[in-house]
């Protein structure tokens, strides 16, 4: 190869390796709420993005200043197939709810567990659209109330792991549950528990027949009996009935978008709380770093950075070759109404 050809190719390779390179973020219309929501539910039905629930501080007063968190039940819909589409208010959830898990299925959007202002929930509900309005069908209850857990669809089975059972819990769960979509009457079945500390706010992913669980944090009581977090870098997979620990993350990642974006044999952890800022009132925002896990090599690498304020505590919803990121929080207590499409690996 001539030197004239080597130079441009080398330059392109350098740009691809640069920490400024990232999969493109395509902005979508912000949700019609001036504050936005953390811990919301989101999924896609046909070409319709349906999202809602979650919690925020509507008066703008942060919790360390006495602000009150409010849980919501509003549902919004956006036609992803139309470039000029606008959000519509389409109704409400059966009750205010947030911090559960939402999974896009061929049948609709499955809303799993979550919480309101006083308790955690065991309800599981399939959300569908009938003549543009939300309809809800009860599905098998969780064995116990859960919020802040992680789940992903592996084939026709939903794997769920972690979470906490009540707002005052000082220990997280390591339980692992499976729901077979083709044998729903059996309900949620206990599977081998994660052989490590229980955790909340991990990210889950599915690749082939394997379930992945990444990051999160464990809990323990502090001197005052309040929950204290330990930030985790662990990566685990569950395959053929066995948990295996994989390469650790380069940094902790708590409350990164979940289910985590996947492309081919790569899993992407986008932002997340790395635990380096411990004073909420002076927090400068979460890391913009995107981490990529190469399944074939069992390695993590830097895959660039978001060029938008990085959100945490948010759901994703698959759309074409990307993943919709819906709202979340950009600083402790501070929500965002932003919505964007993240296309991994581009």
From TrEMBL:
Transmembrane segments: none annotated. The keyword DNA damage does not apply. Keywords: Signal. It holds the Pfam family NANM. Residues 1-22 form the signal peptide. Gene3D superfamilies: Kelch-type beta propeller. This is Galactose oxidase.
């Amino acid at each position: 190869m001539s030197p004239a050809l080597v130079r441009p190719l080398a330059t392109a390779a350098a740009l691809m390796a640069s920490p400024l390179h990232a999969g493109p973020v395509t902005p979508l219309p912000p949700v019609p709420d001036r504050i936005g929501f953390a811990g919301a539910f989101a999924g896609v039905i046909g070409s319709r993005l349906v999202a809602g629930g979650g919690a925020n501080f509507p008066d703008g007063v942060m919790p360390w200043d006495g602000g009150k968190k409010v849980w919501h039940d509003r549902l919004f819909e956006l036609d992803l197939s139309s470039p000029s589409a606008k959000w519509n208010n389409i109704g409400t959830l059966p009750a205010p709810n947030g911090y559960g898990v939402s999974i896009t299925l061929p049948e609709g959007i499955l809303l799993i567990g979550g919480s309101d202002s006083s308790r955690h929930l065991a309800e599981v509900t399939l959300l569908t659209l009938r003549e543009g309005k939300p309809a809800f069908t009860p599905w098998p209850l969780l064995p116990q109330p859960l919020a802040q857990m992680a789940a992903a669809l592996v084939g026709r089975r939903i794997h769920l792991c972690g979470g906490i059972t009540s707002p005052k819990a000082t220990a997280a769960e390591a339980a692992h549950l499976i729901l077979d979509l083709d044998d729903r009457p059996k309900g949620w079945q206990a599977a081998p528990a994660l052989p490590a500390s229980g955790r909340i706010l991990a990210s889950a992913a599915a690749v082939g027949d394997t379930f992945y669980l990444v990051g999160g944090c464990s809990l323990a009581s502090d001197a005052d009996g309040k929950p204290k977090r330990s930030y985790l870098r662990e990566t685990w997979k569950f395959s053929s009935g066995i948990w295996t620990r994989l390469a650790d993350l380069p940094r902790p990642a708590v409350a990164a978008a979940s289910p985590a974006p996947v492309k081919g044999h790569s899993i992407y952890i986008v932002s997340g709380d790395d635990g380096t800022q411990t004073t909420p009132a002076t927090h400068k925002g979460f890391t913009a770093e995107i981490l990529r896990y190469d399944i074939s090599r069992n390695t993590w690498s830097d895959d660039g950075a978001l060029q938008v304020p990085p959100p945490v505590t948010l759901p994703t919803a698959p759309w074409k070759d990307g993943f919709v990121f819906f709202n979340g929080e950009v600083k402790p207590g501070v929500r965002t109404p932003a919505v964007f499409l993240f296309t991994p690996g581009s």
